[in-house]
Amino acid sequence: MVVTESPRDPTRRTRHGALFAEDGAHFDFVVIGSGFGGSVSALRLAEKGYSVLVLEKGRRLRAPDFPKTNWNLKRWLWMPTLGWRGLFQMSFFRHVTVFSGVGVGGGSLVYANTLPHPGDDFFAAPSWGHLADWKAELAPHYATARRMLGAARNPRATLGDETLRAIAADIGRPDDFSLNEVSVFFGAPPGETVPDPFFDGEGPARVGCRFCGGCMTGCRHGAKNSLDWNYLWLAERRGVRVQPDALVTAVRPLEGDGGAEAPRYRIEATLHRGWLRRKKLAFTADHIVFSGGVLGTVALLGAMKEDPRGLPALSDRVGHFVRTNSEALIGVTTGRRGVDLAEGIAITSILHTDAHSHIEPVRYARGSGFFRLLLAPHASGANVFARIGSAFGNFFRRPGRWFKALFVWDWAKHTQILLYMRTLEGTLRLRRSRGLGTGFRRGLRSTLASGARPQASMPEATDLAQRFADKLGGVTGSLVNETLLNVPSTAHILGGCVMGASPEDGVIDHRHRVFGYDGLYVCDGSAVSANPGVNPSLTITALTERAMSFIPRKGEPSAPA
Ligand SMILES: Cc1cc2nc3c(=O)[nH]c(=O)nc-3n(C[C@H](O)[C@H](O)[C@H](O)COP(=O)(O)OP(=O)(O)OC[C@H]3O[C@@H](n4cnc5c(N)ncnc54)[C@H](O)[C@@H]3O)c2cc1C
Ligand code: SF4
Question: Are 500 and 506 a contacting pair, CB within 8 Å?
Answer without folding.
Answer: yes
